[in-house]
Design a protein that fits this description.
With 115 residues, the chain is mainly β. The strands form two sheets. Strands 2, 4, 5, 6, 9, 10 and 11 form a seven-stranded mixed sheet that branches. A four-stranded antiparallel sheet has the order 1-3-8-7, with no helix packed on it. A hairpin with a 6-residue loop joins strand 5 and strand 6. The chain is globular and about 40 Å long. The chain starts with a strand and ends with a strand. The relative contact order is 0.32.
């Protein structure tokens, strides 16, 4: 059973930083792409970033390019999202994602950016 557990969310002022973590369990994740999505109140869930199994290929939504960095530690089955220069519009629940035959999601971690 695949399990994803996010952590690291919180309340931060605009311009601040947070580092999210997603701990994966239930199988080996070193050969799969993992990603982050977010969902703001009243909006659909949207793509934020993905990282290939080796970490060599990363993709980002345009609205986070230059501010967020995705990384992973396969030895720890953990993927990270370093978020810098946060804006109030980054306020959302952030979800970790992996697709192994089907989509798996964590429970999410709340990020609130105050102006």
């Amino acid at each position: 059973q695949v399990q994803l557990v996010e952590s690291g969310g919180g309340l931060v002022q605009a311009g601040g930083s947070l580092r999210l973590s997603c701990a994966a369990s239930g199988r080996t994740f070193s050969r799969v792409t993992m990603g982050w999505f977010r969902q703001a109140p009243g909006k659909e869930r949207e793509f934020v970033a993905t990282i290939s199994w080796s970490g060599g290929i990363t993709t980002y939504a345009d609205f986070v390019k230059g501010r967020f960095t995705i990384s992973r530690d396969n030895a720890k089955n953990t993927v990270y999202l370093q978020m810098n220069s946060l804006k109030p519009e980054d306020t959302a629940v952030y979800y970790c994602n992996v697709h192994i035959g089907q989509n798996y999601w964590g429970q999410g971690t709340q990020v609130t950016v105050s102006s």
